[in-house]
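Encode chain A's predicted structure.
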Amino acid sequence: MTELPDLSLNKGRAATVLTHPARRLHHMVLNSFAETGRAPMRAEWERRADSAGIDPAAALGELTECDLVALGENGEIRAAYPFSPIPTRHRIIRDGGAEVYAMCAVDALGISAMLDVPVTVTSTEPDTDRAVSVRVDRDSARWDPETAVVFAGGTGDACGPSVDRTCGHINFFTSSDAARDWVTRNPEVSGFLLDQDQALASGVAEFGALLERAGHADGP
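Encoded structure for chain A:
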């Protein structure tokens, strides 16, 4: 396991090159998750895009090409990083808001900065299901246990979407030793440890400005 100081998932960077229509659609999808806790159905966001004068096929093509959104075989959203449309081990709770799930640990840590509200991340360690909780307020956090870390790993084709390559292998662990033990048992996964500051900084860098970069465009 190689210790590295950075995790470059490039979601924030990818969002900066979107055309304005694609940014607006991206904004609609992310806000739908944030407001309702669920993914918008394809018919729903296509209708909203049409009403806003956005070509949904072209805009979606940009989002999937940049790996900001991934679709299933049925055409519905299976990932809109940082959000997951199905329950994962990373649950996000915010006061007065809908409960949502994150695709991975780093995604979970970036949601507070993206939504500009404090959140509580509750997760479990792979295999042991030992609990990890993080109270995140934008770029600050309190971790329980205090020894918790994030292991950022991946497998498979480096050209595939993150949902298939990395999301299932970027997880919270109760300690560095626990993470190393897990990697020893799972040699097919390669990656590196992130301490608490590195993990939070990665989440903020990846997702903190996504809604700003979407231009604060409102759907109909």
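The mean pLDDT is 90.
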